[in-house]
Amino acid sequence: MSPIFRARDFIETHSGLAFALIVDQVEGELLRGTLRYRREASGWVKLSTAEAQRCLQRDHPALLVHEPRFDAILPGIPMQQVARHHRAELRLGEIMALAPNQVEAGSLEHKLRHVVTQLTRRGVQLECIGVTGSLLLGAHGAGSDLDLVIRSTSRFEAARVALDEAIRAGELQPLDSAQWRAAWQRRGAAIEFERFLWHQRRKGVNAIHQGTKIDLGLWQPVAPLRPGVKEEERTIRGVITHDQAAFETPSRWRCDHEEVAELLTWSATYCGQVRQGERFEARGIVERLEDGSRRLVVGGDREAKGHWLVMTED
Fold it and tell me: Looking at the domain assignment, is residue 2 inside a domain?
């Protein structure tokens, strides 16, 4: 049976906060998520990572709870504070079930229906697709992206193939250089634009439809992360030896390095960034695990400011 609460779903609290869940189900009577929006008189207001942290520290400090797996303070939302649960697959199903005359032409819902139709025509099962982000919450506007979540690796790979086929057929369009540059500037990536562009294009998880950017994301249950203790910030180089979890959340790779055995990131910028057999350079925080092994965590938040992960030629 699928868990009631799933990562990439949203929850609203009675105090007017909206969190994107980062793990499935309830852990110790708490839901784990990242604060993405705050309700104001004008409606939902999107928060940056820094703005969300200030909001929680100032107004909701009780929601900041130590998470030993990450040796970090993260939001933990008690179940009794949940006012509404927005489910990614349920919301997408509702939008797809609308009659054509119920959907305004050019709206984000209209664009979503076209994109999902292109995927399902090419063999992706509707029930494995969810819509997340601003459209799930009802916080979307004219410039919002379409964020889709796929719940298994095999279905995610099928969706990547279908997205590429739809682009080749002219039903969707690839991002142009200006659109990629806007994404690079918005994310504040610590790598130069040309390197960012090269890595992003080969991932096969983005497209454009009528000016709206489409993002495919993977979520499937993973084994609990082992607790780690932060040691130091470092830049390392090595070779990727295993990349099967490269598109999961968090993204993980095993690597050949004299001290660090694993790379890990929560950042969408570096999800799927490097492949098995490639040489890499990465900057992040080294964590020591209980068995004495070490991993490098690239970015402590979505933006991963000052950290990076790239393929290198030498």
Answer: no
Q: Which domain holds residue 274?
A: 228-312
Q: What is the mean pLDDT of the chain?
A: 93
- Residue 223 within a domain: no
Digit-coded pLDDT (tens) for 84-139: 999 999 999 999 999 999 999 999 999 999 999 999 999 999 999 999 999 999 99
Confidence band, pLDDT 50/70/90 cuts, at residue 312 = very high
Q: Report residue 37 as tokens.
A: 């929006």
Query: Which of 26, 60, 85 is where one domain is finished?
Result: 85
- The pLDDT confidence band at residue 303, using thresholds 50, 70 and 90, is low
Residue 216: how many CA atoms within 13 Å on its side-chain side?
Answer: 29
**226 phi, psi to nearest 5 deg:** -75, 140
131 and 157 belong to one structural domain? yes
- What is the SS3 string spanning the chain? CCCCCCCCCEEEECCCEEEEECCCCCECCEEEEEEEEEEECCEEEECCHHHHHHHHHHHCHHHEEEECCCCEEEEEEEHHHEEEEECHHHHHHHHHCCCHHHCCCCCHHHHHHHHHHHHHHCCCCHHHEEEEHHHHHCCCCCCCCEEEEECCHHHHHHHHHHHHHHHHCCCCECCCHHHHHHHHHHHCCCCCHHHHHHHHHCCCCEEEECCEEEEEEECCCCCCCCCEEEEEEEEEEEEEEEEEECCCCCEEEEEECCCEEEEEECCCCCCCCCCCCCEEEEEEEEEEECCCCEEEEECCCCCCCCCEEEEECC
Note if the pTM is more than 0.85: yes
Residue 287 is assigned to a structural domain of this protein: yes
One domain, residues 113 and 140 = yes
